Amino acid sequence: MKYVYCNVMILAGILLSNSAVANVKLVPKAFHGKWVGFHDGTKITQKDATKICRGSYDNDYQNRAWIWIFDSKKSSFRSVMYYEDNYIFHPKSYTKYSANAIKGSARVLFQPVGGKEEAFNDKFDFSVKDNKLYLKHISSKKKLATTIFMKCTK
Question: How far apart are alpha carbons 121 and 134 in whole angstroms?
Answer without folding.
Answer: 21
